[in-house]
Amino acid sequence: MKLSVIIVSYNVEGFLTQCLVSVERAISKVVADQIEVFVVDNDSVDGTCEIVKRKFPWVKLIENKENTGFSVANNQAIALAKGEYILLLNPDTVVSENTFKACIEYSDKNAKLGGLGVPMYDGGGAYLPESKRGIPTPWASMCRISGIYRLAPKSTNLNSYYAGHLDKDQTSQIDILSGAFMWMRAEALEQVGVLDEDFFMYGEDIDLSWRIIKGGWENHYFTDTQIIHYKGESTKKAASTTSAYSTRPC
What whole-number distance in Å separates Cα of residue 37 and Cα of residue 27? Predict the structure, then answer.
């Protein structure tokens, strides 16, 4: 098995349907039986599970009886995944038709690659700066929160949070991957561990990205493909349940 795609859903049936349609198209560009797709549903009440069963019978559906959070749900599927690569994908995303093929080919050529991210654009076509990020040090986080980074968007000092010194159209090494599209080598995960379940939602991508680097692997920003990320739609639904539990990044 070459790739395991894992999508965690919570009351976002419309977005999930659109996502799975794009996933199916991307699968058509590679050997289909080398890719498996998991949907882990966190007790949605919008008919998500019934629609997945009816429209996408090839999906491996895990139906939780409660909202276990992002990390726990992803780890459930990671434990079952057989792929050489594992992709954690938000349900409010649309992948390009070449995404899986391009990422597999690039990863196969880069043995030290532990994780990979791609350029992300919102529904209006605007580039999302969190597609590539640096380590969120106190200074970097302060520059981001205060908006100072906007004064010098390409500065290594003022905009290290969004790795502003790196060209958004050029493949390069980065520090932090986005949880919306988190492509990882299974071997790296076996070494450094899976998502920290103390993070209910938010921050787990930063933690795991850092552990991948500390484990001697590289994280890459790969620009030969791109995705749409409707940015936060999958998390807005969960806002009321995460207020007491979520750990948010700086």
Answer: 10
Full 3-state SS string of the chain: CCEEEEEEECCCHHHHHHHHHHHHHHHCCCCHHHEEEEEEEECCCCCHHHHHHHHCCCCEEEEECCCCCHHHHHHHHHCCCCCCEEEEECCCEEECCCHHHHHHHHHHHCCCEEEEECCEECCCCCECHHHCECCCCHHHHHHHHHCHHHHCCCCCCCCCCCCCCCCCCCCEEECECECCEEEEEHHHHHHHCCCCCCCCCCCHHHHHHHHHHHCCCEEEECCCCCEEECCCHHHHCCHHHHCCCCCCCC
| Domain range list for the chain | 3-120+168-232, 133-166
| pLDDT for the residue 134 | 77
Q: What Å distances lie between residue 250 and 93, 127, 146, 202, 228, CA to CA? A: 24, 21, 12, 10, 24
Cβ within 8 Å of residue 57, ≥6 positions away = none
Distances (CA, A) of 26 to 64, 102, 130, 206: 27, 10, 23, 27
Residue range 3-120+168-232, CATH number: 3.90.550.10
Structure tokens of 24?
């199916």
Residue range 110-135, pLDDT digits in tens? 999 999 999 999 999 999 999 998 77
| Low-confidence residues of the chain: pLDDT under 70 | 143, 161, 199-202, 232-250
